[in-house]
Design a protein that fits this description.
Layout lengths: L1 E11 L6 H11 L9 E8 L6 H9 L7 E6 L5 H11 L2 E6 L11 H9 L4 E6 L6 H18 L11 E4 H7 L9 H6 L5 E6 L13 H14 L3 H30 L7 H33 L7 E4 H7 L1
Parallel strand pairs: 1-2, 1-4, 2-3, 5-7
Antiparallel strand pairs: 3-8, 4-6, 5-6
Helix pairs in contact: 5-8, 9-10
Amino acid sequence: MVKNLISYVIPCYRSENTIESVIDEIAATMKKDKLRGYSYEIILVNDGSPDNTWGKIKELCNGPRKDVITGINFAKNFGQHAALMAGLRASKGEYVICLDDDGQTPADEADKLIDAVAKGADVAYARYANKQHSLFRNFGTAMNEWMASAMLGKPKDLYVSSYFIARRFVVDQMLTYESSYPYVIGLVLRTTRNIVNVDVTHRKREVGESGYTLGKLIALWINGFTAFSIKPLRIATMSGGIFAVVGILYGIYTVIKKFVNPNVPVGFSAMMSAIMFIGGMMMLMQGMIGEYVGRIYIAQNKNPQYVIRETTRDEEDEA
């Protein structure tokens, strides 16, 4: 850890046209009077972007701010949370700020986050009064909030986002997690509850579109509640018990009804509906259990969180 050093970690995907303005904004922010006692570094992680994002990162690393920028290039796309873990592992700052590469998270308000941890918080998340995401992304965020509250024990009044700051000891504890499926929110919540929100603005996306698809959002939700919670397994056990009791009671009811009225016809349609419903529930619960078993298998095989193809520090060492 370097005292009074602030590390900015930025996962990059399709951001060749936006990342430079984010860097400029960070540099301008660090010149504010209240931040003059701090130095800074910026770690850019190219998450297998198909455009020229890595070329842009290398250009920035050779530009006027080359002394504060480090670039990391993944061998393929591993996802935002893996990119964050790589950036956190490369960071050295007393405080670490994670933000987006598209300019929607206001880097010029980073001093508000820094002020929150300077006053005693371990982690501070940016909270937006008016989000400028699409309806699809807002739905995904709402689902993510619900999942974190229900499965991970997140306080309901705490808003989590991709823009946050953490103290060094929190980051170091997060980095002890070496499993194949990192989930940053879960790692923060298992480390500390001294977390606050800071109100900031949220900007409209000027260039491109979100890299999150429905499939990626679903994968993120599944990763969240299977990586840090066994509640889904408990729900499966409880559901199995409830359906078993309902089945027994319905069987008793059917027998009594037949004795009371022998002319009652046997309900083939009702029976098939019950079989299909219960069978579907059983397959769902077995699939949930299989998800956990599969993750254990993959973790035992030491599947990496990410693979780094190259870094700009490697090029500096060769030079």
